[in-house]
Amino acid sequence: MNTLTKHLIAAGLMTASAAASAELSVNIGAMSDYYFRGVDQTADNASLMAGADYDFENGFYIGTWGAQLDDSEQEYDLYGGYGSEYEGFSYGIGYAGYFYTADGATDFHELIFSGGYGPISAEYVLGTEDAESGDEADYSFFSLTGEYEGAYLTYGSFGKDYDGDYVEAGYGINYQGVDLSLAYINQLDDLSGDGKKDKAFVFTLSKTFNL
């Protein structure tokens, strides 16, 4: 899962259009901090990341993405789905699993619906926590994103066993084949559970190689 996809989950995770031809790509990059859906994943630490994606000719896709959380824990994601377009409308459905290497870590499984028209995209997620202790929690997530010439603004909201909202604004460019982006995250509620409403700037750079 590339940086743009992971952080523009923020801009509609997996709102994909059918590829003109089958394509394999890999990506590497780094983040000044790793925020996902408005929540800090690394406690203000920088993170390295890498991933691989395969887009089929018929609109299906599969991929994997991983990030360093700290010196002893990594995250790796597996995902796949289908995306296409019809008369200017994009739509997609997919699965994503988020897994962690630390002992006793909680994994997450999601069914993701996405759609968009022009500069507006939205996603709706149904997710489940899968803890080694056997405890589970169900949650939902909704986001609405507007994009214009590299800039985007996202509102995201959690529901069910989760609760809270955030907004994210950012801008990205491609400079000599390297993707550069700067994002500002503003929690409207205490999403991190630390008694604070986090605010943060995150700088990301990544490079994608089409194979």
UniProtKB/TrEMBL annotation:
UniProtKB keywords: Signal
Leader sequence segment: 1-22
Organism, scientific name: Marinobacterium halophilum
Record InterPro entries: CHP02001 (IPR010239)
Name used for this protein in its record: Uncharacterized protein (TIGR02001 family)
Any Pfam family hit: Gcw_chp
Domain of life: Bacteria
